[in-house]
């Protein structure tokens, strides 16, 4: 048996019978309390920290901000917003320190300072601090990638697509649209140009291709699917509402050649799905090496496919996500820990995504079972403790975000990857 995951011993959802099982909120809230208490006991904001969203204080701040917004948890942790403020203040102070010695581009979002300023802007608005908000937004916008940024990269953790994810998120959560369409489209155009240039130079059969440190990754964190997903979130594919019905429509204003290259690249990725529903880590490795986690493999590729399904309405994308979810159910109970990047909660988000897409209660059932698995003795005994056990992407801060979303599955979304906004 693959040592990367524990055997899922739960029976799958019984298709017959009552499909409207009610789930008890208390075990979820108890688990949230356990994790949050351990974060507050262990993560002192004054500790030296690089501050970022991925493993730093800004990620913890994001979790507290999320707790303060949810109607299910804001009474559970009435001081959540104050904690968010304390953690983000320290993250910003360290961002200033690290700026001078960091080799990262200023637009790096999840692993850099741009993400810190974005989350700080949301917290400033929640605290009704207009001066703080405008300062944070100015810092975030000053980091906007431009066509003068030669080199650099395009992926989600440190590249241009990650910065875009922050722009979309800010426009969603702040009262007004703060990042104008022309800025977003300019970044998208740079990403498309970079992908075409790489593809031509390396004779790729995909019209848009990218490499990170010389490797053609396909997953959400470093690879093609995360980058293409952020292009699909652009104003080129703006969501409108039909007057005749409640169903949402997408007005596609992307230039025809961009649309062609994007669609062809997405459909090339689709052909790489294997029989069990997973995707390879890289284009070079083909089907040899496979991981089942958000950063590499199906649990991250599904966000691109979900957005493609919502925009193009082609059933093949939804079917591919359903196959991915079956793969996650079988092989997604990872020993690597509870987190969202390469852990149980990140994989369980696939079920919440499919629940929102299909309203099929099998996915809600599976999402709850993954939560139960986190509390099982086997997981406690056999799971590894990540390097940053309380952080947003490797640790339990991300798991808390998942659990908050489990309390409100109709609103659930993986952090900074909301395909429904
Ligand atoms: Zn990972």
Distance between the termini: 39 Å
Number of helices: 15
Radius of gyration, rounded? 20 Å
Percent strand equals under 5%
Order of helices and strands: HHHHHHHHEEHHHHHHH
Binding site for Zn(2+): 295, 341-342
Family: Belongs to the LanC-like protein family.
Keywords: Metal-binding, Zinc
InterPro entries: 6hp_glycosidase-like_sf, LANC-like, LanC-like_prot_euk
Report what the structure shows.
Zn(2+) binds at residues 295, 341-342. Keywords: Metal-binding, Zinc. InterPro entries: 6hp_glycosidase-like_sf, LANC-like, LanC-like_prot_euk. Pfam families: LANC_like. This is LanC-like protein 3 homolog. It is a single chain. The chain has helices at 26-42, 57-69, 80-101, 113-126, 130-142, 160-173, 181-201, 224-232, 256-271, 298-312, 315-331, 344-358, 361-374, 377-382, 396-407, and strands spanning 237-241, 248-252. The protein has 421 residues and is mainly alpha-helical. It has a domain at 1-42 and 333-420. Strand 1 and strand 2 (248-252) form a beta hairpin. The chain is globular and about 50 Å long. A two-stranded antiparallel sheet has the order 1-2. Helices cover 52% and strands 2% of the residues. It is built from 15 helices and two strands. The mean pLDDT is 92. The structure holds zinc ion. Zinc ion is lined by residues 221, 293, 295, 341-342.
